[in-house]
Design brief:
By secondary structure, the protein is α+β, with helices and mostly antiparallel strands. It has a domain at 71-259 and 325-333: Gamma Fibrinogen, chain A, domain 1 (Gamma Fibrinogen, Chain A, domain 1, Alpha-Beta Complex), CATH 3.90.215.10. It is built from five helices and 13 strands. The protein has helices spanning 3-19, 34-94, 176-181, 194-201, 275-279; strands at 97-98, 104-105, 135-141, 144-153, 157-165, 183-184, 190-191, 207-214, 220-230, 239-247, 293-294, 312-313, 326-333. The strands form three sheets. Strands 3, 4, 5, 6, 7, 8, 9, 10 and 13 form a nine-stranded antiparallel beta sheet that branches. Pfam families: Fibrinogen_C.
């Protein structure tokens, strides 16, 4: 090899060394390619978009499921209503069954009604349909169906029963919420519900109330008030009674008017007497003595009782306390020209 060839080779080697990148420093981060960073960011955005699209599809699916459930629930309510109507028609064709105490029990209907039944506000509005037999019917309060016991008398009077006791089969020692919405079986024992009673008696019509109490020997007492209504839940369903008319007993509910309703879990008596806990049931108790009348108290078989325990009316067997066998609180529209309402 001549000198020129050797020199050329050396020059080539030196140029190659200059072209080589410097060795990486220990611990230094590798240089990032801006293009690679952009591609990575685009990939991340694409993944987020896909996940968001998946969330949207899931929300849409859940919305469809909820809509379907609401539709199924509405259909169930309609089926229950149809079954009640069919039960009414079947009961009418078979005839009403007499209860043990001689009071007609069960559901009654009439061939004069439509397939859906008459949409009436109270039992009195059943009379134009030719219904004359006491029993359980459907009325509509605030456009909601409500099952009630109707006391129909001689095709003239039609009372809507808001409270019924006859055998102690239903526990009346209930909470505020239960007394508000109502409980029990209209064909046997029940409380219609404070909110329903309020809506029924405060919707523009004027109502009277009739109280019936039967003893264990076949006797009874009764009394009528020409004005009855419940105020709203804002006042704890204060009772308004006025204008005593007729009956064979003195007014033991005189002190109850103007009182708020009380239950064992909501004492609204204003005296801290815990009347509902002491005497049972929910009622418009008055003062520290609590009981002058209480038709929602604990059911006491046999009649004889003491200290105001039971279904009591102060003046029935006074000075002895006596607990009734049967009680009914019935209401019916009255002549609106009789007096104005109490303030």
């Amino acid at each position: 090899m001549d000198v020129r060839q050797a020199g050329g080779a050396i020059l080539l080697m030196f140029a190659a060394l200059l072209a080589m990148p410097p060795p990486p420093q220990v611990g230094a981060a590798p240089a990032l390619d801006p293009q690679q960073e952009l591609r990575a960011l685009r990939n991340l955005i694409s993944k987020v978009d896909k996940e968001m699209a998946g969330v949207g599809r899931t929300a849409k699916t859940l919305d469809m499921i909820l809509t379907d459930m609401e539709s199924r629930f509405d259909g169930l309510i309609q089926n229950v209503t149809r079954l009640e109507q069919q039960r009414d028609e079947l009961s009418d064709s078979c005839g009403a069954l007499p209860a043990e105490d001689g009071v007609t029990a069960g559901v009654t209907a009439s061939s004069a009604t439509t397939a859906e039944g008459p949409r009436v506000k109270d039992c009195e509005e059943l009379l134009p349909y030719g219904l004359t037999q006491s029993g359980v019917y459907t009325i509509y309060v605030d456009n909601r169906p409500v099952r009630v016991f109707c006391r129909l008398e001689n095709g003239v009077d039609a009372w809507t029963v808001i409270q019924r006791r006859q055998d102690g089969s239903v526990n009346f020692n209930r909470s505020w919420a239960e007394y508000k919405t109502g409980f029990g079986d209209p064909g046997v024992e029940y409380w219609l519900g404070n909110e329903i009673i309020h809506q029924l008696t405060s919707s523009g019509d004027f109502y009277k109330m009739y109280v019936y109490m039967e003893d264990w020997e076949g006797g009874y007492i009764h009394i009528q008030f020409d004005e009855f209504y419940l105020e709203s839940s804002a006042t704890k369903y204060k009772l308004r009674l006025n204008l005593l008319r007729g009956g064979n007993t003195r007014n033991a509910m005189y002190f109850n008017t103007g009182q708020a309703f009380t239950t064992y879990d909501q004492d609204n008596g204003g005296y801290g007497a815990d009347c509902a806990k002491r005497y049972g049931g929910g009622w418009w108790f008055y003062g520290p003595a609590c009981v002058y009348a209480n038709l929602n108290g604990n059911y006491v078989p046999g009649g004889q009782t003491q200290d105001g325990i039971g279904l009591v009316w102060l003046y029935w067997r006074s000075p002895v306390w006596y607990s009734a066998k049967v009680t009914e609180m019935r209401i019916m529209k009255r002549d609106e020209n009789i007096p104005i309402r109490q303030p």
